[in-house]
Specification:
24 strands; alpha+beta
Length: 515
């Protein structure tokens, strides 16, 4: 019920109710409001019952220092006014307890059997109260399967998700002590191939290997590296009086990751005793405020952990009880809220069109190159704009929203080209990147005879970090972990997984020791 639908007297009562709620909860700390789980309470019923009780018992005011019955009416009115309360729950509760049944055992005697506050019932009030105290179990879909339990539930199955799950489930810790968490990964698209192409600096990949070995995990260098280049080239000609043909070479080795091999290495399922389990289902919840979710009852938190409903593609639902949820579902997460208090500009966007192609080298005068690109070097940047007619609208557009070519020569006449907008606000279109890509290749005399695969890359750059007061831990794109000036993400996520895994394991160990 919105505040605007309450008359002046109702608003005055609600103001008193909020004050009474504060005072009474200080005196009765075991009573709290549950947001999103257990009993589903209609705010329409809350207000109806509260006003009905007030009328029948001639409550003339709603003073903050009223006796317990009036304070409970205040609590009900506050719930109706804020339109958020879903249950009255004595804390703490265990996952196995039925919240509605537990409420009925409280001394307040707010139960369908005894009427409101233990007073005489009016006709029909029992049926209304049965609805008032209906538990989430009562409304559960008939397709809901038996529940799963785990220490950590990882949502998503991309590189960030599999990296954190791999380290959390490892039986070894960097300090040498054996320890492995019960990790469950949830993604209805778990078997889908990873579409992006990943490039890394060799020294960064070596650091990642060392980190994972400290957890007892081996990535296998040779298996995961698809191509190695000892040098990296850049072209910035045409700007700042730099000659168009001038090449800037960086003596820093670069590698292309075999995305399928890395996916296999980080897939520790099946018969591995020290791996993680997988459920092919997605969450169905959406955060509406801090630790509040819709649809009601699909995700709830309590003092011991969280309960979440997952749904498979065939509609079957499974309830999972977990001590912690890690959201790795990407930039468009429905569960991780951003910190609205931090002052930051809206995110920019890196947009790119990539194509793995085969080129015709029949007329090539130098088989060691594809156009101007050395086959033994990875071209990180080609920012030149000489492929556009001078003074044309296309050249002006390129100067206003620049893009660059990214080239990875593979074997023989196969090469991966990508035309990318490093960051723009607003973003340029995929089609613009694609058009510029093939315009550049045509200008360079590179004849494409076959396109094996295409990649459409969309990466938010910058923006606010996740809010700190929420129960779900964001990781990867969900936590804005993309490098804000380059768009690199793979190495950052895989390296950060080490620190995050250590923190989670240490904290969950501490919780166990205190129980």
């Amino acid at each position: 019920m919105a505040m605007t639908s309450v008359d002046d007297r109702g608003r005055r009562h609600i103001r008193y109710a909020l004050l009474g709620l504060t005072t009474w909860q200080q005196q009765h700390p075991r009573l709290l409001l549950s947001f999103g789980g257990g009993a589903h309470i209609s705010t329409k019923h809350i207000l109806r019952f509260a006003l009905d009780w007030k009328k029948r018992h001639k409550t003339k005011n709603m003073s903050p220092h009223s006796q317990t019955p009036s304070a409970v009416v205040a609590l009900l009115l506050a719930a109706a006014a804020t339109n958020t309360c879903q249950a009255f729950v004595p804390a703490p509760l265990r996952a196995s307890q039925n919240i509605a049944a537990h409420v009925r055992k409280e001394p307040m005697q707010m139960s369908p059997e005894s009427g409101i506050l233990g007073r005489h019932r009016t006709a029909g009030s029992g049926r209304r109260l049965q609805k008032l105290f209906a538990s989430s179990d009562d409304a559960r879909s008939p397709n809901t399967a038996a529940g799963e339990t785990c220490d950590v539930l990882v949502l998503g199955s991309g590189p960030a998700a599999r990296a954190i799950a791999t380290l959390l489930s490892s039986p070894k810790r960097p300090d040498g002590s054996p320890h492995g968490l019960n990790v469950l990964m949830a993604d209805a698209n778990f078997d889908r191939a990873w579409p992006p192409n990943y490039g890394v600096w060799e020294d960064e990949w070596d650091a990642i290997n060392d980190l994972y070995q400290s957890f007892g995990r081996t990535l296998g260098d040779a298996k995961c590296i698809d191509r190695y280049w000892s040098v990296t080239d850049c072209y910035f000609g045409g700007s700042f009086d730099i000659p168009t043909e001038e090449r800037f070479r960086v003596d820093r080795p670069y590698c292309r990751i075999d995305k399928d091999a890395l996916r296999d290495v980080l897939t520790l399922t099946g018969e591995e005793e020290d791996g993680y389990r997988v459920i092919r289902a997605n969450h169905i919840s959406r955060a509406t405020s801090t630790n509040l979710y819709q649809p009601m009852g699909t995700l709830t938190h309590d003092t011991d952990g969280s309960t979440i409903v997952l749904q498979a593609k065939d509609g079957e639902q499974t309830t999972v009880r977990t001590r912690l949820i890690v959201d790795c579902t990407g930039h468009e997460s429905d569960l991780v809220l951003k910190d609205g208090r931090a002052k930051s500009k809206p995110a920019g966007f890196q947009i790119a069109y990539g194509a793995l192609v085969t080129v015709d080298e029949t007329d090539s005068p130098d088989k060691s190159q594809i156009g101007p690109y050395d086959k033994e070097a990875m071209t990180l940047f080609d920012y030149r704009t000489d492929h556009f007619p001078e003074g044309s609208d296309a050249e002006k557009n390129a100067e206003r929203a620049p893009t660059f070519m990214y080239a990875m020569p593979l074997k023989d006449n196969r090469i991966f080209f990508e035309e990318a907008s490093l960051v723009a606000r607003p973003a340029i279109s995929f089609q613009e990147c694609k058009d510029r890509c093939f315009t550049r290749l045509e200008h360079l005399g590179i004849k494409v005879v076959d396109v094996e695969e295409e990649e459409f890359c969309y990466i938010p750059m910058g923006g606010p970090l996740p809010a700190k007061d929420q129960r779900i831990v964001g990781f990867g794109g969900a936590a804005a972990m993309v490098h804000p000036s380059t768009g690199y993400h793979l190495c950052r996520a895989m390296m950060a997984a080490g620190d995050v895994a250590k923190a989670i394991r240490t904290d969950l160990d501490k919780d166990k020791s205190e129980v």
